[in-house]
Write a structure and sequence with these properties.
Two copies of one chain form a homodimer. With about 375 residues, the first copy, chain A, is α+β, with helices and mostly antiparallel strands. Chain A has eleven helices and 17 strands. Chain A is about 35% helix and about 20% strand. In chain A, strand 3, helix 3 and strand 4 form a beta-alpha-beta unit. Chain A is globular. The N and C termini of chain A lie far apart (about 55 Å).
Chain lengths: ~375, ~375
């Protein structure tokens, strides 16, 4: 066990203690990464050699175990985890080896690496990803399962220094990608071709294939439809383009959105863009510690409504080891912003006759208000 | 409910009846797709608006329900499913809404769409992906959970006519991508740059971003390490390249591998390549209905061993709605091949001083033996 705990691991351990739990069993990829630093791609979900999601077990003192298929043992050993329990065979004969997975968990719970996890008691778990057999193994040992969701949200909502550094790098690379998008989205090219050039910005910088979410849509119809990944639609003069670019870089997610036009925007799109820009500015002005996420949402929506527009999605969200973290900036979310949170603000407007506009910047909640981390133009 | 069931749905329903189960609750993305045809990208796993994996419920008669977050309601309605239960809110305020997910499942189990799912009894489930709260809801209703893994493997192992057509298309597009790989992997370019051009082949054909697994490695060290995704390594004259290309196209996976050299191969790599080619040919000759997967594995490994080589992975695997399906062609797998299975054979050889070679073709198990579906050169 490390003598100095990483702040993230320490916060999870503190959550375990606060819950008076014996330990936590984390099964969400982002929580596993947060607690241990194990970095594996999520592009293909649970791999075919796995019998369930990778698990991170965290003791009240911050001692950590990972349960991973053999194929991921290297990534696990390269992490901060104190112990790695691997399972599965070398020749890949067993598909989805649920039995080997359960046996690995059983061995861990029954004290294979010591007595650390012995004793019946509360166990923090993630109900949206913990699989039934693991829950069963815990219950058989008289553990009582407690939903970790709120505790993890509280632990993770203010970013550590390491996280802020990682997120600044994400903001920088998404900004570079946004600048590139304007250069490569040209009439006659497909969305996919332009998107491939955008992807190359962060893949090339990081040096490997990065996961990516977001949207890349062009033309009136597709931008008005709010979301969508790049397709073989051919870009045309006059098209609006929404580039909502969100890559995962070294375990942290960046996010960003700009809207631009190939050529001359229509007057109605200009008006829409100005309104969205005004709403974003209203949000940046209102954002500060103590303002609730719901109140901030109200400010941005109200600013846009004054110009006659609305959007059918959240105003924004926190970001970190997951692309969308707590709190969401959405109606009724009664959670005060705190200094050191990192959030996205992303108001938009969409009209089937005009097209869509969305503008999104990444912002640190500073003591005195918004500290914009994004560095790309929002011009139409 | 459709009057004529899709053969895939019908097979899952037959599995439910064979197990004397009241219904099946499927939670693996490939099983959900198989049973209902709902096609969503898996690139980012369970989306942030979801409280757990999408679920497909299948009755003994083949009536189907999908449980999906609202964001995926469109994909669900475009599927073959008879009923769609959507959950979650429009403004995306609730992250990972486990409560809404559980409520949707509870509503379904308690007969919201009729009495079809009433009555205690056996329920087929997938233990590697069913989450604990859903298992709990089933148990509270006195259902007994039965592992569906074997029943689904049996149902899925021989491909339907629709699947074979889809897999032929996958074989064709992976072959086109393999041909492209040789054109674009040039000295001075990075693996990532070459891989982006390869990706464009299938993305462009299908018209949207496709999921992809496999490997793209160059140089002696990286090819000898067996697996790896494209990086910013710069290709050099004389490099071996292993292009193991496996895209998901319209819900079905293609797979393929070729090894080639940028320029003149060394004598040792030539010898290694000839041996692997010989092993693949031995496998193609031996492959026929009735031969067990384990016996086929033996044949291929033995052929290679005669030349002094070995590989630390399976000899191959079935393919379909998942990239790796049952049976795997690996030591000791005592499952006879059957006419109409589609498998990959992928022997390889790896040496830190020489580099690595892997050759992989997609093959239908025909009545008289191997029917190669791949159409690309295996030359070094």
């Amino acid at each position: 066990m490390s003598t100095t705990l990483d702040e993230r691991t320490a916060r999870v351990a503190a959550a375990v203690r606060s819950a008076e739990a014996s330990f936590a069993v984390l099964s969400g990829y982002d929580a596993v990464f947060y607690a241990t630093g194990m970095l594996v791609s999520q592009e293909l979900g649970v791999p075919f050699v796995a019998g369930g999601p990778d698990l991170a077990v965290v003791s009240p003192e911050g001692e950590t175990w990972l349960v991973v298929p053999r194929m991921r043992a290297g990534a696990a050993r390269a992490s901060r985890a104190d112990h790695v329990v691997e399972y599965g065979d070398d020749t890949l004969g067993a598909l989805a080896p649920a039995t080997a997975y359960a046996a690995a968990v059983r061995g861990l719970l029954d004290g294979a690496p010591g007595e650390a996890l012995g004793g019946a008691g509360r166990v923090l778990v993630q109900p949206d990803s913990l699989t039934a057999p693991v829950a069963e193994l815990l219950r058989e040992r008289a553990h009582r399962l407690v939903d970790a969701t709120d505790a993890l949200r509280t632990a993770r909502k203010v970013k550590t220094a390491e996280e802020l550094a990682a997120l600044r790098r994400c903001a920088g690379l998404t900004s570079a990608a946004q600048r590139r998008a304007r250069e490569v989205a040209l009439p006659g090219r497909t969305e996919l071709e332009a998107f491939a050039d955008v992807r190359a910005v962060w893949d090339g910088d990081v040096g490997h294939r990065c996961e990516v979410t977001g949207d890349f849509v062009s033309g009136v119809e597709r931008t008005a439809a709010v979301v969508g990944w790049a397709t073989d639609r051919v870009l045309r003069e006059g098209d609006p383009v929404i580039a909502d670019l969100a890559p995962r870089l070294d375990g942290y997610w960046g996010d960003s959105a700009a809207t631009f036009v190939l050529g001359e925007p229509t007057a109605r799109l200009r008006a829409m863009h100005a309104a969205v820009r005004g709403a974003l500015d209203a949000g940046l002005t209102a954002l500060r510690p103590g303002v609730t996420a719901g109140a901030l949402d109200d400010v941005v929506r109200a600013a846009l409504a004054r110009d006659g527009y609305a959007y059918p999605h959240h105003t924004g969200h926190s970001v970190g080891a997951a692309s969308h973290e707590f709190p969401t900036i959405a109606p009724g979310v009664d959670v005060p912003l705190e200094e050191g949170m990192v959030v996205l603000l992303e108001p938009g407007a969409y009209d089937p006759e005009v097209g869509g506009v969305r503008l999104e910047w990444m912002v640190r909640v500073g003591a005195d208000g918004a500290e914009v981390m994004s560095d790309f133009a929002l011009d139409l």
